[in-house]
Design a protein that fits this description.
Elements: H1 2-9, E1 25-28, E2 36-41, E3 47-51, E4 54-58, E5 64-68, H2 70-73, E6 84-90, E7 97-103, E8 109-116, E9 121-128, E10 134-142, E11 145-153, E12 159-170, E13 179-183, E14 189-194, E15 205-211, E16 222-226, E17 231-236, E18 242-246, E19 249-253, E20 280-281, E21 286-293, E22 296-303, E23 309-316, E24 319-320, E25 323-324, E26 331-332, E27 338-341, E28 349-353
Antiparallel strand pairs: 1-28, 2-3, 3-4, 4-5, 6-7, 7-8, 9-10, 10-11, 11-12, 13-14, 14-15, 15-16, 17-18, 18-19, 20-21, 21-22, 22-23, 24-25, 26-27, 27-28
C-alpha cells in the first residue's frame, strides 16, 4: 500500500498543461504613464491591481469591475474565496485604530472591525484561516513583559472572538522581525521567535510552539533551529507542515509535533540564505516560479506532490533597451489561474490564464 501511495504522489499525469497554452486574458489597469502592479487574485480568479494609489479590479474574464481608494488596498490583500481581506491603520498613538476589513471582488467594502491601538503594540500579522475567515496575531508590551494575542474574524471581517492571550514572557517584547504567527492548513496556530525571549532557551536558537485553532497549547516551546541569530517561517508545506529558516539552515515541522525534520528536496538546500521561498502548494501539484535571463523568460516548474519535476512552463519576456525585464515569475491563484504583470514596456498591462492549474493554494 505504501508503494502505491508513493507512486500516486509522484504521478505527473495531467499536471502540466499542454503547449501551446491558450490565449491569455489581457487588460490594462492604466495608461503607460501610470505606475501599476499586481496586488492579488481571489479564489474565483478575479484580479486586483494597483494603479498609482488606486485599487483596480477585474473579473476573471477581464471585465472591469471597479476601483477603490488607496487605504483599502495598500496594506496587503490576502485573498478569500471571493474578494479580499486587508488591514489598515488610522490615526496614531492611543487615539488610533487598526481596521480589519473584507472587500468584495469589485473592491466594495463588505465589513470591517475597529480595534483600538495599544500604546505598547509591537506589531501585528493578519493571516487567512484556511477553514474560513481571518486570524490576527498581535504582540504587545504588558507591564514588565510581553504577550501575544489572537483574534478570529469571520469572512465579513466581524470579530468572532478575542483578544485571547496565547503566549507571554518577561522582559522587552521581541521586535517585529523576531517573531511570526501563522495558521496551518488544519487551523493550528504557530508562533516562532528567538529563544532569548523564552528562558532557558537561548538567543542563538529559533524556537516554535503549536496551538490548536482556539489558542490552547499543543506543544511546549521547542528548538527548531540551533546556532542561528535570525530566522522565521519560510513556506507552508503539503500536508499542513511548515518550513522554517535560520542563518544556520532550514527545517520542517508539523502541527502538534516537536520533531524537526529536513525540508523537502524540492526546496533548494541553500534557500535559508534568502529567508523565503516562492512556491504555490496545491493539493495535486506544486508550482515554483523561476526567472531566466538567457533566454529572457519567466518560468513555472510543475512538481508532483512527491516533489519530482513533471515539466516547466515558459513565459517569454521581451528585453527593453537590451535589458531583460523578467521578474520573479508568474503568480498562481487559488483557483489555478496564472498571472503575469510587467511583461512589456507598459507596466500597467496584465495578462492571465484562467484556471491553467487546477487546485487551491494553501
Amino acid at each position: 500500500m505504501l508503494a502505491l501511495l508513493l507512486a500516486l504522489s509522484s504521478d505527473c499525469t495531467g499536471l502540466v498543461p499542454p503547449v501551446p497554452l491558450p490565449a491569455p486574458v489581457q487588460v490594462s489597469a492604466g495608461s503607460p504613464s501610470d505606475s501599476c502592479a499586481l496586488l492579488s487574485v481571489d479564489g474565483s480568479g478575479d484580479v486586483a491591481a494597483l494603479r498609482n494609489a488606486l485599487g483596480v479590479f477585474f473579473a476573471s474574464d477581464g471585465t472591469a469591475l471597479g476601483t477603490s481608494d488607496q487605504d483599502l488596498v495598500l496594506i496587503g490583500t490576502p485573498a478569500q474565496a471571493r474578494g479580499w481581506y486587508g488591514m489598515r491603520f488610522s490615526g496614531s498613538g492611543a487615539q488610533g485604530v487598526t481596521l480589519v476589513y473584507a472587500a468584495d471582488r469589485d473592491g466594495t467594502l463588505l465589513g470591517q472591525t475597529q480595534i483600538p491601538n495599544d500604546p505598547g503594540s509591537q506589531g501585528s500579522s493578519l493571516q487567512r484561516d484556511p477553514r474560513g475567515g481571518l486570524v490576527l496575531f498581535s504582540m504587545r508590551r504588558d507591564g514588565g513583559g510581553w504577550v501575544v494575542d489572537v483574534r478570529h474574524f469571520s469572512s465579513q471581517a466581524a470579530l468572532v472572538d478575542g483578544p485571547l492571550t496565547i503566549a507571554s514572557g518577561k522582559g522587552a517584547p521581541p521586535p517585529g522581525y523576531e517573531w511570526q504567527g501563522r495558521v496551518a492548513a488544519d487551523g493550528s496556530l504557530l508562533l516562532t521567535l528567538q529563544g532569548t525571549h523564552v528562558p532557558p532557551l537561548r538567543n542563538n536558537q529559533l524556537v516554535a510552539r503549536w496551538f490548536d485553532p482556539a489558542g490552547a497549547p499543543l506543544t511546549p516551546w521547542f528548538v527548531a533551529l540551533d546556532q542561528t541569530t535570525e530566522g522565521g517561517q519560510m513556506l507552508a508545506l503539503p500536508g499542513g507542515g511548515m518550513a522554517l529558516w535560520g542563518d544556520s539552515g532550514q527545517v520542517a515541522i508539523r502541527p502538534g509535533e516537536t520533531a524537526v525534520s529536513a525540508t523537502p528536496p524540492w526546496i533548494p538546500a541553500d534557500r535559508y540564505r534568502w529567508g523565503s521561498f516562492p512556491a504555490y502548494v496545491l493539493p495535486d501539484r506544486i508550482a515554483i516560479p523561476r526567472t531566466s535571463f538567457s533566454p529572457c523568460e519567466e518560468q513555472l516548474d510543475i512538481l508532483a506532490p512527491a516533489g519530482n519535476l513533471c515539466g516547466t512552463l515558459h513565459f517569454p519576456m521581451p528585453a527593453f533597451g537590451g535589458v531583460c525585464r523578467a521578474g520573479f515569475g508568474p503568480a498562481v491563484a487559488a483557483d489555478g489561474t496564472v498571472v503575469q504583470d510587467r511583461y512589456d514596456a507598459d507596466s500597467c498591462r496584465l495578462r492571465w490564464w484562467p484556471q491553467l492549474l487546477h487546485g487551491q493554494v494553501r
